[in-house]
Amino acid sequence: MRLKLLSPGEMNADQKETYDEAIAGKRGAPPAPMMAWLNSPEMARHATRLGEQLRFNTIFPAKLSEIAILVTARHWTSHYEWYAHKRLALKGGMDPKIIEDIRDRRAPTFDDPKGKMIYDVAKSLHEGHGVSQALYDEAVKVLSERGIVEVIGLCGYYTMVSMTLNTFEFGLPDGEVSDLA
Q1: Which SUPFAM superfamilies match (predicted)?
Q2: Rg of the chain over CA atoms, in angstroms?
Q3: Which fold is adopted by the domain 62-168?
Q4: Domain residues of the chain, as ranges?
């Protein structure tokens, strides 16, 4: 870990206010990257609010939004992000085979056309740096324009999360081993 994470007692007033707001939210605990972001309390406040919005208030159930998050974690080989969201994906009902395929960089087989579309859009955003007109047109039909905006938000936000976790070398909990090579 490249950064000393502050305990609540070590935080200044702005940091503590942001921390307290985060633990009072739907997560009930501070998201790991926020502990690094607290070095910029206003950024931490806004980023954490955005993360809560994307995690709990999109049009997608967890089973679907976790597809975009896992694609992003895998793209960045973010060990901590993968560890955290693999568990949430399983809890949300995602087929373990889909998780395995994303981990191994294989295109999964989806029963749900929305799941496939979220995967295709997320992969295109990360690998192609955008979305072709044909994919966009199909995504509008399957996900809606709001859905596309929210997939972009998930990929963008979790890119920032992955960059933070990777840069500051957040470790996995004791006894855990990364699934990512």
Answers
A1: AhpD-like
A2: 17
A3: AhpD-like (1.20.1290)
A4: 13-57, 62-168
